[in-house]
Design brief:
Elements: H1 2-19, E1 24-30, H2 41-49, E2 65-70, E3 76-81, H3 83-89, E4 95-100, H4 111-114, H5 122-126, E5 134-139, E6 174-179, H6 194-203, E7 207-212, E8 215-220, E9 228-233, H7 242-255, E10 259-262, H8 275-285, E11 289-293, E12 312-317, E13 321-329, E14 334-338, E15 351-354, H9 362-365, E16 381-385, H10 391-400, E17 405-409, E18 427-430, H11 432-444, E19 449-459, E20 487-490, E21 494-497, E22 512-515, H12 518-535, H13 541-550, E23 563-564, E24 568-569, H14 572-575, H15 582-585, E25 590-591, H16 599-605, H17 610-617, E26 637-641, E27 646-655, E28 661-664, E29 670-671, E30 676-680, E31 684-687, E32 693-702, E33 712-721, E34 724-734
Parallel strand pairs: 5-9, 5-10, 6-9, 10-11, 11-12, 12-20, 15-16, 16-17, 17-18, 26-34
Antiparallel strand pairs: 1-3, 1-4, 2-3, 7-8, 13-14, 13-19, 15-19, 21-22, 23-24, 25-27, 27-32, 28-31, 29-33, 30-32, 33-34
Helix pairs in contact: 6-12, 7-8
Length: 735
């Protein structure tokens, strides 16, 4: 009998132990203004300990335990707690909120690691970090002597380099600086910051201990840290004249750059009237790869620029890092937003919360200049809607009116797309859902209150990459038969070099800033192209572009399809071929190459005259031969199909993988929308040598018996051979 009782007791204890509340480390934020005065360190410790629950559980249950008691960076502590313990704390005076800690990791300014580029490992090391490749950047100038442009480990430029440095400060890293503006107040240096940021994103050297206002700490480094940089200043503080841009392109081609990064754009024109498109064509004729930003006019369709097919058109995606600034409402809801400015002395006491636009005044809701002059916001947390005027400008309006802090709310079209900005006052930029919750809370009580909390840098956001709301979308207006954008890459809250210190606006030796835009994603892809050029010197611009596109990722870190931050599945007009994966691009298996003259019948097919085509290709041509857009040997497809219609296109692929290899395509490798049938006429490609070329035909058929009630359908097909997967997406406009 005794043995039976022991067995029963053991089972009970095991059950209790297994079901005991699991403890994890929480960060507990307290309001020290609640009558607490700490004369000695122990007084603070005692107050912190007073929040730990007194448990009477058995010895087998893990007890709450203090992990860290903070004194400077925040008022509060870290402790091993259960959710039930935290719940018990919520009624205690002085408690603000508690959250499970985030698991941090060692990181750089982060986009290299996020893209799978690790120092001394894999493709990054194998490409010699872009050593020997010259990246030309057309922008606002740059900042010589910035640590990001140190030339440690960088050899002298190759003998082909013909450029020059018009100001002091060049070295083996920064090998050229030329100014094509009127001098901008007599200086050739970067007074805007944009060019310093983009050029260091593409090819900045390693700089330890970089941060912005103490956030995003790590090693700042560009995509191709040992590549050379040549800056062509084509923009003033006010604008970027097309004449200067063309002059910059002209010089870059002559100087001998290998890659061009152009984070500039305008509403699209026919290619022969577009200075960037024309100049870029000359560049690819000379074997120079050209990457351009898609633009920041999203989320509407057909808003992108730089859509010529010989340009890599780059959209913007998020990183897995956020600079968190949280909104704590009087109802104890805590909503995460973002801000670079993270004041350590902002009171955690709840302040009055006001939304000036609650009366329906649009200017007040947007916190436009002068709109708050006669509104009592002094000492309050002020809610502003995003739109029209600048995000930082809204904060200045609030600050000038006496507001203590700002909460910036997204509109529905911006979804979850928040940005970390250097605000002029304590602020948090929150998503649309969070904004709705804040406005609902304000309308639910006569005395709404809120405060801001500043957890700082968080890494590991598994919804990344996602397409940010501002990234311009396709379809292309100038050539709708070419799918654009081509690719997306990191363009949100990117840390890179900056001409001046953000703390005091004076130049110091090591200054950085965080910026967002397709201007930031473009130099990422330019730098990656430089790595590929270093790894494969014989690859043409079209080959590099194809390798990037056909190897692109389709899922985010959580394993789910890439999403739009508007809380939608990302459309093909937002992501193009997908998110760049540098290591996969280095070994794509098959590529779709295009010779410069192959564009001539394509351009003629757009309806351009021989003269107009000649402007682009720089020679006399005859438009006696034309091809439809879909027949260009592009690594994607875009077309229109009427009911019952079918179209057949051919593609030629070049084997850059294993010599003896067989590629096949089967039914699971072809994803089609309803009402569409795709037929691959030769579904097996057998190669016997590297650089061998084979051609296949592909027919798209639209059924006349299936009703289709959407304007577009999208899909993809993929060739497989062992470790290789060569994916080409397509989109069909139903007419």
């Amino acid at each position: 009998m005794a043995s039976i009782l022991v067995l029963i007791l053991t089972i009970i204890l095991t059950f209790i132990s297994a079901n005991a509340a699991e403890l994890e480390t929480y960060i507990v934020h307290l309001d020290s203004s609640k009558g607490q005065h700490f004369i000695q360190k122990q007084d603070r410790q005692n107050w912190y300990h007073s929040f730990l629950p007194r448990t009477t559980s058995g010895a087998n249950e893990e007890q709450p335990a203090m992990v860290f008691a903070y004194r400077n960076v925040l008022n509060g502590f870290a402790a091993k707690l259960s959710a039930e313990h935290v719940k018990a704390m919520e009624s205690m005076e002085g408690f603000l909120y508690a959250r499970p800690q985030r698991v941090y990791m060692k990181h750089t300014t982060h986009t290299p690691n996020f893209l799978g580029l690790h120092q001394n490992l894999g493709f990054w090391a194998g490409s010699n970090y872009g050593k020997g490749v010259i990246i030309g950047v057309l922008d606002t100038g740059t900042t010589p002597n910035h640590p990001s442009f140190n030339d440690k480990g960088v050899p002298p430029p190759p003998a082909k380099w013909k450029g020059k440095c018009e100001i002091a400060g060049c070295n083996n890293k920064l090998i050229g600086i030329r100014d094509f503006t009127t001098g901008e107040n007599g200086t050739q240096f970067d007074q805007d910051g944009h060019g310093t940021h983009t050029s260091s994103t593409a090819a900045g050297n390693f700089v330890n201990d970089a941060s912005v206002l103490g956030n995003a700490k790590g090693t700042a480094v560009g995509m191709a840290p040992l590549a050379h940089v040549a800056m062509y200043k084509v923009c003033t503080l006010l604008d970027c004249p097309e004449s200067a841009i063309i002059a910059g392109l002209d010089a870059a081609v002559e100087d001998g750059v290998d890659v061009l990064s152009i984070s500039l754009g305008l509403d699209p024109n026919p290619f022969y009237l577009d200075g960037i498109a024309v100049g870029a064509f000359t560049a690819i004729q000379k074997g120079i790869f050209v990457a351009c930003s898609a633009g920041n006019s999203g989320p509407s369709n057909s808003t992108l620029a730089n859509d010529a097919p010989w340009i890599l058109t780059v959209g913007a995606s998020t990183l897995d890092r956020k600079i968190v600034a949280s909104v704590s409402l009087g109802n104890k809801d805590v909503l995460d937003g973002e801000s670079i400015f993270q004041p350590k002395d902002f009171p955690e006491t709840y302040l009055p919360l006001v939304y000036p636009g609650s009366n329906g005044d649009k200017n007040m809701s947007l916190c436009m200049e002068g709109s708050l002059d006669h509104v009592d916001v002094k000492g309050k947390v002020v809610v502003c809607d995003r739109g029209i005027n600048g995000r930082i400008e809204k904060g200045q309006v609030v600050k000038d009116a006496g507001g203590a802090a700002m909460i910036l709310l997204n509109q529905v079209e911006e979804g979850d797309s928040t940005l970390a900005d250097v605000h002029v006052l304590p602020a948090s930029h929150v998503g649309y859902k969070e904004g709705v919750a804040i406005k609902t809370y304000i309308s639910s009580t006569a005395s709404p209150t809120a405060t801001l909390l500043f957890p700082g840098t968080v890494v590991g956001v598994d919804s990344a990459p996602a397409v940010t709301s501002f990234s311009s979308r396709g379809p292309s207006l100038q050539s709708p038969g070419i799918l654009k954008p081509d690719i997306i890459g990191p363009g949100v809250s990117v840390l890179a070099a900056w001409p001046v210190s953000l703390e005091n606006n004076t130049q110091t030796s090591s200054t950085f800033n965080i910026m967002s835009g397709t201007s930031m994603s473009c130099p990422h892809l330019a730098g990656i192209a430089a790595l590929l050029k270093a790894s494969h010197p014989d690859w043409s611009p079209a080959t590099i572009k194809s390798a990037i596109m056909t190897s692109a990722d389709q899922v985010s870190l959580n394993g789910k399809p890439i999403e739009d931050e508007r809380e939608l599945g990302a459309s093909i007009f937002a992501v193009g071929s997908g998110h760049v994966n540098p290591s996969k691009a280095n070994n794509p298996g098959l590529v779709f190459d295009i010779e410069p003259d192959d564009y001539i019948p394509y351009l003629c097919g757009l309806g351009y005259t021989s003269q107009q085509v000649g402007i682009i290709v720089k020679k006399t041509v005859s438009c006696s031969k034309t091809i439809p857009e879909g027949q260009l040997n592009y690594p994607s497809y875009a077309m229109t199909l009427a009911s019952g219609e079918n179209k057949t296109y051919s593609r030629t692929v070049t084997n850059v993988g294993e010599a003896d290899s067989t590629y096949t395509i089967s039914v699971p490798d072809v994803v089609v929308p309803d009402g569409i049938v795709v037929v691959v006429h030769n579904s097996t490609l057998k190669f016997t040598q590297v650089n061998q070329r084979l051609t296949y035909d592909l027919t798209f058929r639209r059924s006349n018996s299936v009703e289709i009630n959407v304007p577009y359908g999208e899909g993809a097909m993929a060739w497989r051979s062992g470790k290789y997967l060569v994916r080409t997406p397509f989109v069909i406009k139903f007419v």
